[in-house]
């Protein structure tokens, strides 16, 4: 696990070089400018192929999370558009045991592919191995499955989570003029969170005037009032912190709420996922919110479907592990219309590719 | 008392040496040791907090932060009270958290989606609580289904209704039909009743304490002397607390929600301890058959407990919506076990076996505080579960261990 | 043990004492009981009889004293296979079958490894039942049995375990006379065969008829210990009464004079059952009028108590009608006090007032708890419940004291119709007289009483007219004046 | 049986008139109606499945898929059995799922991190189960803490230990110290015992059925006739099932895990129904006081139930690790409520009030199948909770409704 205690303040670890103040600020400005561009370039597959027919099981991490429910439907729509049959969408209930169970059911039903949305395939290793062993294509949208799983054949369709953490890091450095003290919430059980945290800390390590603390908030505790770890952290540190990072937007709302209720105005919360509620607050100019990172969810879901179809048809695959993302701040939020997606009718692009050989 | 009007006449003189109501000495000691034994868990918690205060100082003894914990846990505690009232009736109600999740949706959705006036929304939410209670009570009392499985099933249905209503997604109020400002403000820790109200409550609490102490004062003291002694004692204790713990700064920290909780708990305490319904409920829980034969309508009482539990859970959901401002699926799901833990803690915090209102509230808050102290003290996060669990066990076992040792 | 099958070892108890907290329940108990003795243990409610037996069983360790079995000093008798105990609540488990109950605590008969030999166990169970003259299907749950059958099953269990010394705590108090007689006869036979039997009872006839020696326990001390040969009923009563000041008057005569109903005899009709069916009772025609005490008796399985429930209203008639005069309440003393009676964890005060809470409504409809407690305390004192404190938890009371509290609860309700099922079950001689006196005083121009009992003494002592129940139907009523006990038995 | 050797001698003629107390027909009818009433819930489930079969055809009646459901739910069912055994003893054990989560970690971690030989890993996991059971039993029986709160606390501690052990993150086996291949294979639905074993089991089940039917055959038939009749009946039924439901294709679908479950359940059934321990346990659960007075060491029995529950939960965790191949925090947490639902279902599936082994297994599987049918049938996801809950309630209430109607 990556978790250290909430008390552990990290300085520059593993020989990260610290930049001079000038260099730091110019790099930050540069990185933030690049990350906040609202028109990033999307990788687009070129070669067409005949999709044929087949069956895909769609399994979401947990349908109780709105994003998962929404993307499961998007995946279903994409699969149907390709003329394939959908099993599911299945509700993974955020439980590896349940998620693995549905993969086994897909094997039993002789599906051709399994589409996962934000599932950590490492926690369902055995079921994934069984699926791959049965020649079933496993694609995972919004996942960092790791080199080992990818080598075995798991197809990730995702922005670079570590890069997202870095982007947020540079934003915080810039915002604080190189003097940030950051409380970083982590959930060591979630690989995506771990990767984002890694990127974030990598940047903060280069900033001589910055420091940070990790607060471990297990997912199970994230819905408790406060959450308790955050409330306790605030009362243990009455002042000094300038920034906090919520590991997903589900935490942003309770965290800012607790800040407000303890009468704190000194901490700004940044986060990931571009939840509409958070964005609308940000658009209103809430002083408590820093930046948020938007990922191209719909596009990732369609791309995942595309990958499965391609694998089945034996067509060449394309690089889907580095989809773009956008850093949203108070400055560019007005120009942003969710979701983050390529310009033009990109759905059409895909459906055309699937019917041309 | 027609029956006993002629007692004096018919009673053989030897048995009527005008026995005073004072209890004989031996049972007195029994009662006292019982009172002490049953407050041991409470004392154990206080000892833990004293330890924290020495260790963490102001970082733990921060009135604002501790009252914020209380404020934030009002929905959990209301659900705990909902669970407690059915436990008093000898039944389980596992549907309380689902009911809260459902009414949380309705509280915001009926206004923003269906456009009902807000008073109608509140009425509808409480009506849902009543309906849930009626259904549960019907299943358990009239169809004789085991309460555990009945409420597990009905909880599933209720949760399902909330996900059908919401389409499985969250609900974020926006647009013209916003919830009223006071509702949003209600959820905020910063919105507080006038300090006078708080002080009035404190005064009432002190008066109650004076009265309760009546059981402790030596019975040979006359009425005036006893009253004076008690008043002085309570006033001194109150002064000590006020000055020592800097209460004026706390008193400003009682939010409307906390106030609401206190009002609800007081009402429930009155209901349970001072009304015939409460008495009948306890009897029905203790021995339903005997209660029925003693002329108590046990079914109606248990049904009443379920309805009350449903209403409290519904209230918790509404308040949850107020504190969150938006609603996500099964918002209150994670509250189920903490709520039951608080309810069961009440059987040892202030009593020796019975579920109590104040035990539930205080037990629930104490557990939160214990956890907060650990985190503030910098205990690595991975350890909190262990220490939390261990503290719970130790606090609970203390009272029984001492009881056993005394035998 | 085949060789010594006949004789039980001698039991010697010296200086035995037991306290709960500061309450000394037993002190300085010295007893020596030889083989073949049948000892009756008597004493008022709360004297410590059950506690003595529980101490001997090892349920509570003694606070002082020694116990010797034969030559050997033992911490308690519970561990010895030679000693059997039947406690006041029989200790059977309702959910298990008769066979399982009979095998509980015995070394299991095994087939292979730990697997039980079920058929052999069933056969053994049937044999054990036959030994006490009982013929029941052993695969049915014990919960379906009548109290009489349960008592015999409990005794069969003790015998089957090879007990040579048997302690029986009021096993007969819940039984109708014919069953009680059978139980006592079975115990007598065991004593004749060389076993030792110690039986707690409040029934004088059982002491006089079956036992050879009576031990009187008072306030946790042995107050008298003598042979019953040559002991007459009057003498026994005197012996009991001489130690109980105050209760002497009524206790001296278990049959007070005939009723003295309110002037003018029975008044208006309070309750009427017309062709009512319910449970195993029916059709039942019954009238209870103001100012009278109506008695009902019957054999087990006759649906006797179901008639009581019908009259009380806790059992709705499935056919026929029940008419209650306007504004009349009913109160019930249920027949099975251990399960139907009290609220074990609530205190005596609450147990007393629970049926009469409407009387303690004060301001805003809230309970006037002070008044409630005072009233409860008054009743506790009146009924001589021990300990005389409304704050005691109900479960700590002795059996007879529980009965008194439940009786008190019915009194406090101020009902128009009192249905008293087995009102004197397990109460001592003095309390019995006290209860009779109270019941006699109940009927007036607004109040009638229905006594449903299998104890003939109750009927003779308090009833104006009585009837028997058999197969769920009520026979014709007869005035009680012209009956004595033998005549009554003829009626039954 | 020395006592009865001389029965004839010691028995007084007067006391043995052997007149049976009147026990007429009613109790017979009672027993019969009870047997019928207690299988009503079972029949209700069968009716639902019949409905599904008509509606969904082969999509529901797919032997492979249904057996896969069973295979996948083996850990849940083991946890349900763990919960059930303590419920038989009259206690709650809420720590079962935490224990499973812990041993899931240990099963993989002790091998890959600490490098223990795998047999030692298994021993350690079961030892953890024993230890947990001992602690729970000690808290509940020797310190007299309410089982609900005691196991809530100990469950927290156990979960905490797993998070300390794992650092709060998942554990993914890799590197040279991999778990043995057979362990990985064990979790797979594709690894199956030889078909002969399955058929042998089926044969034993049929034999048991023949024996059980003995209670139904008219008692006037002689032994041979009765046996013949029963054998023919069972054989006919078996043939019908085999042909009608295409059993040969099912029989190949019994995985090792399913087999393990059947073995464990059978062992538990023997323990509960055919050993002195089981009888003592039921007695202790039904009436601890009476059981103690009857000479049963209730404490040891209850302790034994907790230990057995702990071991079963530990086994569930190990198997969970095998099926998952890796471990995440509180892997088994979501199993707690379904497990208790299965255990409570057992009180109505095959019996009228008592917890049973086969009722737990079958109840648990049936609930899963009901849910699967809904998913297969394409019920929108938001509706599954409602229908699942409603089906549970209806199935459970049926038996009581009919019982009430019969009165
Ligand atoms: N566990 C206990 N704690 C405190 N007091 C107890 C306890 N058990 C019994 N007592 C008290 O000891 C006294 C003797 O009770 P016991 O049951 O032995 O009476 P008994 O002679 O059997 O009376 P009865 O004829 O009514 O059955 C009673 O006053 C009872 O309240
Ligand atoms: N609910 C029942 N259904 C069928 N038989 C029963 C039931 N309850 C008891 N019995 C049987 O009836 C017989 C007598 O029971 P019991 O001694 O309680 O009768 P009773 O006291 O005369 O009647 P009651 O208490 O109903 O007025 C027993 O053999 C018992 O098995
Ligand atoms: Mg007694
Ligand atoms: Mg009866």
From TrEMBL, chains B, D:
It comes from the Bacteria. Residues 1-24 are annotated as: Disordered. It is found in: Cell membrane. PANTHER family: ABC TRANSPORTER PERMEASE PROTEIN YPHD-RELATED-RELATED. GO terms for cellular component: plasma membrane. This is Putative multiple sugar transport system permease protein. Keywords: Cell membrane, Membrane, Sugar transport, Transmembrane, Transmembrane helix, Transport. CDD domains: TM_PBP1_transp_AraH_like. It is a multi-pass membrane protein. The chain crosses the membrane at residues 35-55, 76-96, 116-140, 147-165, 196-215, 227-247, 253-272, 302-325, 331-350, 357-380, 386-405. GO terms for molecular function: transmembrane transporter activity. Signal peptide: none annotated.
Automatic annotation (TrEMBL), chain C:
Residues 244-275 are annotated as: Disordered. One of its GO terms (molecular function) is ATP binding. InterPro entries: AAA+_ATPase, ABC_carbohydrate_import_ATPase, ABC_transporter-like_ATP-bd, ABC_transporter-like_CS, P-loop_NTPase. Keywords: ATP-binding, Nucleotide-binding, Repeat, Transport. Residues 11-244, 265-490 form the ABC transporter domain. It comes from the Bacteria. PANTHER family: CARBOHYDRATE TRANSPORT ATP-BINDING PROTEIN MG119-RELATED, GALACTOFURANOSE TRANSPORTER ATP-BINDING PROTEIN YTFR. This is Ribose transport system ATP-binding protein. It comes from Frankia canadensis.
């Amino acid at each position: 696990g990556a978790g250290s205690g909430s008390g552990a303040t990290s300085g520059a670890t593993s020989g990260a070089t610290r930049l001079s103040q000038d260099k730091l600020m110019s790099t930050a400005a540069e990185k933030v400018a690049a990350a906040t561009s609202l028109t990033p370039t999307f990788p687009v597959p070129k070669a067409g192929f005949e999709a044929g027919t087949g069956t895909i099981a769609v399994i979401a991490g947990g349908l109780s999370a709105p994003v998962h429910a929404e993307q499961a439907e998007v995946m279903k729509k994409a699969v149907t558009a390709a003329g394939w049959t959908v099993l599911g969408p299945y509700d993974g209930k955020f439980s590896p045991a349940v998620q693995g169970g549905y993969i086994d059911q897909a094997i039993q039903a002789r599906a051709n592919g399994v589409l996962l949305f934000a599932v950590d395939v490492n926690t369902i290793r055995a079921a994934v191995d069984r699926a791959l062993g049965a020649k079933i294509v496993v694609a995972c949208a919004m996942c960092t499955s790791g080199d080992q799983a990818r080598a075995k054949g798991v197809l990730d369709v995702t922005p670079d989570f570590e890069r997202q953490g870095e982007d947020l890091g540079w934003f915080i450095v810039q915002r604080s003029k190189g003097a940030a003290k950051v409380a970083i919430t982590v959930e060591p059980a979630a690989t995506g969170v771990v990767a984002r945290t890694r990127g974030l800390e990598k940047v903060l390590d280069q900033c001589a005037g910055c420091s940070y603390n990790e607060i471990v908030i297990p997912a199970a505790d994230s819905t408790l009032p406060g959450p308790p770890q955050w409330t306790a952290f605030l009362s243990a540190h009455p002042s000094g912190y300038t920034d906090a990072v919520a590991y997903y937007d589900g935490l942003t709302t309770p965290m800012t709420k607790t800040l407000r209720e303890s009468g704190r105005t000194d901490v700004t919360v940044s986060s990931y996922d571009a939840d509409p509620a958070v964005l609308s607050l940000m658009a209103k100019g809430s002083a408590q919110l820093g930046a948020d990172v938007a990922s191209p969810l719909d596009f990732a879901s369609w791309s995942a479907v595309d990958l499965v179809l391609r694998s089945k048809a034996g067509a060449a695959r394309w690089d889907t592990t580095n989809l773009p993302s956008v850093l949203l701040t108070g400055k560019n939020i007005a120009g942003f219309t969710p979701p983050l997606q390529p310009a033009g009718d990109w759905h059409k692009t895909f459906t055309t590719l699937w019917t041309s050989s | 008392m027609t029956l006993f009007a002629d007692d004096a006449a018919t009673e053989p003189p030897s048995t009527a040496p005008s026995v005073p109501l004072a209890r004989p000495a031996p049972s007195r000691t029994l009662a006292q040791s019982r009172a002490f034994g049953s407050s041991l868990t409470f004392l154990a918690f206080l000892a833990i907090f004293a330890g924290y205060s020495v260790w963490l100082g102001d970082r733990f003894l921060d009135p604002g932060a501790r009252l914020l914990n209380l404020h934030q846990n009002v929905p959990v505690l209301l659900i705990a009270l909902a669970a407690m009232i059915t436990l008093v009736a000898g039944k389980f109600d596992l549907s309380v958290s689902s009911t809260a999740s459902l009414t949380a949706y309705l509280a915001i959705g009926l206004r923003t989606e269906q456009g009902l006036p807000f008073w109608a929304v509140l009425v509808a939410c409480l009506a849902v609580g009543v309906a849930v209670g009626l259904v549960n009570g019907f299943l358990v009392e009239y169809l004789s289904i085991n309460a555990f499985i009945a409420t597990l099933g009905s909880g599933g249905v209720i949760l399902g209704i909330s996900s059908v209503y919401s389409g499985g997604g969250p609900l974020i109020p926006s647009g013209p039909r916003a919830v009223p400002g006071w509702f949003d403000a209600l959820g905020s820790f910063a919105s507080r009743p006038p300090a006078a109200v708080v002080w009035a409550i404190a005064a009432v609490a002190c008066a109650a304490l004076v009265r309760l102490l009546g059981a402790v004062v030596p019975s040979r003291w006359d009425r005036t002397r006893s009253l004076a002694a008690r008043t002085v004692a309570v006033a001194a204790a109150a002064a000590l607390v006020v000055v020592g713990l800097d209460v004026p700064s706390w008193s400003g920290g009682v939010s409307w929600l906390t106030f609401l909780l206190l009002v609800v708990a007081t009402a429930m305490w009155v209901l349970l301890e001072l009304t015939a319904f409460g008495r009948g409920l306890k009897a029905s829980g203790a021995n339903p058959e005997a209660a029925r034969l003693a002329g108590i309508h046990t079914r109606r009482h248990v049904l009443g407990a379920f309805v009350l539990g449903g209403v409290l859970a519904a209230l918790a959901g509404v308040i949850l919506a107020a504190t969150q401002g938006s609603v996500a699926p099964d918002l209150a799901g994670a509250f189920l076990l903490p709520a039951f833990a608080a309810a069961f803690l009440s059987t040892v915090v202030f009593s020796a076996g019975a579920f109590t209102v104040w035990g539930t509230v205080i037990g629930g808050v104490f557990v939160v505080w214990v956890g907060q102290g650990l985190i503030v003290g910098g205990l690595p996060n991975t350890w909190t579960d262990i220490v939390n669990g261990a503290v719970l066990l130790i606090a609970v076992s203390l009272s029984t261990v001492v009881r056993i040792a005394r035998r | 043990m085949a060789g010594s099958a006949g004789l039980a070892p001698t039991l010697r108890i010296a200086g035995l004492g037991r306290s709960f907290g500061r309450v000394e329940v037993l002190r300085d108990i010295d007893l020596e009981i030889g083989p073949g003795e049948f000892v009756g243990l008597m004493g008022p409610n709360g004297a410590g009889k059950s506690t003595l037996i529980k101490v001997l069983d090892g349920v509570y360790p003694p606070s002082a004293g020694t116990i010797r079995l034969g030559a050997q000093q033992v911490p308690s008798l519970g561990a010895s296979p030679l000693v059997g105990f039947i406690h006041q609540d029989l200790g059977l488990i309702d959910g298990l079958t008769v066979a399982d109950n009979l095998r509980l605590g015995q070394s299991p008969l095994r087939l292979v490894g730990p697997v039980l030999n079920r058929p052999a166990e069933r056969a053994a169970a049937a044999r054990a039942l036959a030994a006490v003259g009982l013929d029941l299907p052993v695969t049915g749950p014990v919960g379906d049995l009548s109290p009489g059958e349960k008592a015999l099953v409990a005794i069969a269990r003790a015998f089957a375990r090879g007990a040579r010394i048997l302690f029986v705590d009021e096993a007969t108090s819940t039984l109708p006379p014919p069953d009680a007689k059978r139980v006592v006869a079975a115990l007598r036979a065991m004593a004749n065969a060389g076993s030792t039997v110690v039986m707690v009872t409040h029934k004088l006839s059982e002491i006089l008829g079956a036992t050879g020696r009576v031990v009187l326990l008072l306030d946790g001390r042995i107050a008298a210990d003598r042979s019953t040969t040559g002991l007459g009923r009057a003498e026994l009563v005197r012996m009991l009464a001489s130690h109980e000041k105050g209760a002497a008057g009524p206790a001296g005569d278990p049959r007070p004079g005939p009723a003295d109903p309110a002037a003018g005899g029975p008044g208006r009709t309070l309750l009427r059952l017309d062709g009512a069916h319910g449970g195993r009772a029916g059709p039942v025609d019954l009238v209870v009028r103001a100012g009278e005490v109506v008695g009902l008796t019957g054999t087990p399985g006759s649906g006797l108590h179901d008639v009581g429930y019908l009259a009380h209203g806790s059992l709705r008639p499935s056919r026929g009608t029940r008419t209650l005069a306007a504004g009349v309440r009913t109160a019930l003393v249920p027949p099975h006090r251990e399960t139907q009676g009290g609220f074990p964890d609530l205190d005596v005060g609450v147990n007393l007032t629970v049926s009469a809470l409407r009387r303690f409504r004060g301001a805003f409809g809230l309970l006037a708890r002070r008044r409630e407690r005072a009233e409860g305390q008054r009743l506790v004192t009146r009924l001589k419940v021990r300990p005389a404190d409304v704050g005691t938890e109900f479960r700590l009371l002795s059996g007879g004291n529980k009965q008194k509290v439940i009786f008190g609860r019915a009194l406090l309700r101020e009902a128009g119709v009192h249905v008293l099922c087995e009102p004197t079950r397990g109460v001592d001689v003095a309390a019995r007289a006290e209860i009779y006196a109270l019941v006699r005083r109940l009927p007036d121009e607004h109040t009638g009483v229905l006594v449903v009992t299998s104890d003939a003494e109750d009927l003779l002592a308090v009833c104006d007219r009585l009837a028997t129940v058999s197969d769920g139907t009520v026979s014709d009523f007869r005035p009680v004046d012209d009956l004595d006990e033998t005549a009554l038995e003829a009626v039954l």
